[in-house]
Design brief:
This is Phosphate transport system permease protein. Belongs to the binding-protein-dependent transport system permease family. CysTW subfamily. It is a multi-pass membrane protein. With 305 residues, this protein is an all-alpha fold. It has one domain: MetI-like (MetI-like fold). Helix content is 78%, strand content 1%. It has a two-stranded antiparallel sheet. α10 packs antiparallel against α13. It is flat, with a radius of gyration of 26 Å.
Length: 305
């Protein structure tokens, strides 16, 4: 009898195993909930966005490649906003990348002590500033500056680029810093042992080894800029025409969405076409994520070699 009770006790799950099973169940439920929410968002936005083409009969070609946006007259050309979003995003990333790399190199290679004490808190402060504050600063400082230097109204892509440059700078800087710190120390030691100077080591070894991570940081910054709405709306001018210069008023996908979504009736073609713009934004976000995954995969392969 005692042997049977002992065997049953040994075969029964212990308290730790029950807790582990409970933890796995909770984790699985949380992951399932996240997947469900993401799937519902994708389905909802896709259903609303595709109604423009399959219910209202708007041509996909005209929507993507026409330069005339006048929903009240039945003209739904999204090309001006798509071009505006891409131009603002690419230019802001091009400007922010050198500053971010320079700040990251300073904090990791040149002066880690003072970088952690002075530069890193300053960059962290930029992260905590709300978008509306960036918009107001752009409206009161950047727009008059652009107007005084380049003429015109001051509203346009150039003002949006300056605002987004400051907004994405912390993201690119922090991710680049983490990437540089992840470069194996023996890379630097081997370069210095072969007679390279510190700057040669930074330029030809450290930055070269961290290149995939830097590309990932830039793409994350571009995704942040592409989806920004409030700040860019306040300085870009919100004129849905194909940009002819950097200083003329323009529009982005997010600025048109934030301005128009509250002024349309749900279910109308004017409302559905705004959901189509949101669908374009969603596809671009997915494209950015896929590109990040591809670069990360290549980075792991390089380190494995």
């Amino acid at each position: 009898m005692k042997n049977e009770e002992l065997a049953k006790k040994l075969m029964s799950p212990s308290k730790n195993s029950r807790l582990e099973k409970f933890g796995k169940t909770i984790t699985f439920l949380c992951l399932a909930l996240i997947v469900f929410i993401v799937a519902m968002i994708l389905i909802f936005v896709a259903q609303k966005g595709l109604s423009t083409f399959f219910v209202d009969g708007v041509s996909i070609g005209n929507f993507l490649f026409s330069g005339t946006w006048n929903p009240s007259q039945g003209e739904f050309g999204a090309l001006p906003m798509i071009m505006g979003s891409f131009i603002v995003t690419i230019l802001s990333a091009l400007i922010a990348t050198p500053f971010a790399i320079g700040a990251a190199v300073f904090m990791t290679e040149i002066s880690p002590k003072y970088g952690a004490k002075i530069l890193q808190p300053a960059v962290e402060l930029l992260v905590g500033i709300p978008s509306v504050v960036y918009g107001f600063i752009g409206l009161q400082v950047v727009v008059p500056f652009v107007r005084s230097i380049f003429g015109g109204t001051g509203f346009g892509i150039l003002s949006g680029v300056f605002v987004l440059f400051v907004m994405i700078l912390p993201t690119v800087t922090f991710m680049t810093t983490d990437t540089l710190r992840a470069v194996p120390r023996h890379y630097r030691e081997a370069s210095l042992a072969m007679g390279a100077t510190r700057w040669q080591t930074i330029w030809r070894v450290t930055l070269n080894a961290a290149r995939p991570g830097i590309f990932t940081a830039v793409i994350f910054g571009m995704a942040r800029a592409f989806g920004e709405a409030l700040a860019i709306q306040m300085v870009v001018g919100n004129s849905a025409v194909i940009p002819t210069s950097l200083t003329t008023p323009a529009a982005t996908l997010t600025s048109v969405l934030t301005m128009g979504i509250g002024n349309t009736v749900m279910g109308t073609v004017q409302n559905n076409v705004l959901w189509s713009l949101a669908l374009v934004l969603l596809f671009m976000s997915l494209a950015f994520n896929m590109l990040v995954k591809f670069i990360t995969r290549e980075r792991k392969r390089n380190y494995a070699r």
